[in-house]
Design goal:
By secondary structure, the protein is an alpha/beta fold. Helices cover 25% and strands 27% of the residues.
C-alpha cells in the first residue's frame, strides 16, 4: 500500500484484538471512508486483508458508480476484492417487510434489521466458508472480550456523535465472536485525518445519510412506486377528543411525531399521536400529548445474559438520534420488556427499535409495540 503522507503513523490493532500474529481478515467495503480506513489500518498492522462488497438494490447507474469507486479504493490499498450480489435476499428479507410495516401503520428501522439478518450474517458465512480469522467493518462501536468462555460485550464507540451501537444491538454472540471494529476508539474527525494522511481516494467524500435502497429518503414515493396496484385509501384524521379534524392520503404517509403535511387549520400545531391501520385512522394531538412514561418492546435480543439485580443504571434509546434516557427495565417474559423512563419521552414510535444500555455497554434491544 502506498505510504502515508506527512509522516503519519498507522495505528496498531484494535485494543480488543490482542493477537501477535498476521491474520486473514475480511473487511466489508461500502465505498465510504470508514470501511476504507478500517481496511487500511488492519493492513498497516500486518494483516492479510480481503475486501467484500455487497451489491444491494439501487438504480443501475448508482450500482456501477459504487463498484467503480470500491475498485479504485481496493486497488489503491492493494487488497483483493470480492463482490457478492445480495439483491434477491435483500428484497425478500428487508425491502418487502419494510413496505409491509409502513402499510400496517409501523415505522420500521431497516438498518437495525439488516445488520444481523443480512450483512453480518452473510459476512460470517463468508468467513467460515473461506476460513478467514475475522471480519471487520467501519462501524463506530467497540467490542470487549473478557475471557474465552465469557460473553462478548458490545460497547458504544468513543465518538458519541457517531456511535452506531444502536444499529448493531441485535448482533449474535456468534457474529460478534468473529468481528472486529478498527474505528471504535476513533472519532470521525480522526478518521478523516488518517484517511487524508494515507491519501485514500475517498477521504474527502461527503457522508451519505440515506437509507441505501431509498433515493433522496422519499420513502412515501418508494412505497407507492412499488405498490402500483394498491389502493391507498383516504381516511379520517381524528383528534384525541374524537373530533374529525382532517383527512389523510394513506396511512403509510404518516408516522408518530409528524407535524408537517397534516393539512389541519389550527391555532396550535397538531402532531401525529398514533396510527390505527385497522380503522384507517390517523390520531393527532398536541405536542404535550406525545410524551410517554414507558415503552414496550417485543422480540428482545440480549447481547449477553441479563440479571436485573446486577444492573442498576440503565438507559434506553427509542431511535438512533434519541438522547439516552434513564429508567427501569422490566422483563415481562423472555422476549418482552417494558422500560419505564425517569422522565417522559417524546414520540415513542411502534416499529422502531428500543436499545438498552448499562453505561456505554449494550444490553440488547427489541421492537417497539403499542404500550401494553
Amino acid at each position: 500500500m502506498p505510504g502515508p503522507r506527512h509522516g503519519s503513523q498507522i495505528r496498531q490493532d484494535p485494543p480488543e484484538l490482542k493477537i501477535n500474529k498476521s491474520l486473514n481478515i475480511l473487511v466489508a467495503m461500502s465505498g465510504g471512508v470508514d470501511s476504507a480506513l478500517a481496511a487500511a489500518l488492519l493492513k498497516g498492522a500486518g494483516h492479510r486483508i480481503c475486501g467484500l462488497h455487497f451489491v444491494l438494490p439501487s438504480p443501475d447507474d448508482i450500482t456501477r458508480q459504487r463498484i467503480s469507486r470500491i475498485r479504485e479504493i481496493t486497488e489503491y490499498l492493494e487488497i483483493p476484492l470480492e463482490i457478492l450480489d445480495l439483491r434477491a435476499t435483500f428484497e425478500k428479507e428487508l425491502i418487502a417487510p419494510f413496505v409491509d410495516a409502513y402499510l400496517n401503520g409501523l415505522t420500521p428501522n431497516p438498518c437495525v434489521r439488516c445488520n444481523p439478518l443480512i450483512k453480518f450474517e452473510q459476512m460470517h458465512r463468508h468467513v467460515i466458508k473461506h476460513r478467514f480469522d475475522f471480519m471487520a467493518t467501519g462501524h463506530y462501536v467497540r467490542i470487549k472480550r473478557t475471557g474465552k468462555n465469557n460473553p462478548i460485550n458490545l460497547w458504544r464507540g468513543k465518538d458519541r456523535q457517531k456511535d452506531q451501537s444502536y444499529f448493531l444491538h441485535r448482533l449474535s454472540q456468534m457474529q460478534l465472536s468473529k468481528t472486529i471494529f478498527p474505528l471504535g476508539n476513533m472519532t470521525k474527525a480522526e478518521t478523516r485525518v488518517q484517511a487524508r494522511d494515507l491519501n485514500i481516494p475517498c477521504h474527502s467524500d461527503r457522508e451519505s445519510q440515506e437509507i441505501c435502497f431509498i433515493p433522496h429518503m422519499d420513502y412515501r414515493h418508494f412505497i407507492e412506486s412499488r405498490e402500483k396496484n394498491a389502493t391507498f385509501e383516504k381516511g379520517p384524521i381524528i383528534n384525541l377528543l374524537g373530533d374529525l379534524v382532517g383527512e389523510h392520503d394513506g396511512i403509510h404517509r404518516y408516522t408518530v411525531g409528524q407535524r408537517h403535511g397534516l393539512g389541519i387549520a389550527s391555532s396550535r400545531p397538531y402532531y401525529v399521536n398514533a396510527l390505527e391501520p385497522k380503522s384507517n385512522r390517523v390520531i393527532v394531538g398536541r405536542q404535550e400529548d406525545l410524551f410517554s412514561k414507558s415503552v414496550s418492546a417485543t422480540d428482545f435480543h440480549w447481547i449477553s445474559p441479563f440479571k436485573p439485580t446486577e444492573h442498576k443504571a440503565i438507559s434506553a434509546q427509542i431511535r438512533y438520534r434519541h438522547k439516552p434516557a434513564s429508567g427501569r427495565l422490566e422483563m415481562l417474559s423472555s422476549c418482552d420488556v417494558r422500560f419505564i423512563f425517569d422522565q417522559p419521552q417524546m414520540a415513542v414510535t411502534p416499529g422502531q427499535a428500543l436499545a438498552c444500555y448499562e453505561g456505554d455497554r449494550v444490553l440488547g434491544g427489541g421492537w417497539i409495540v403499542q404500550d401494553i
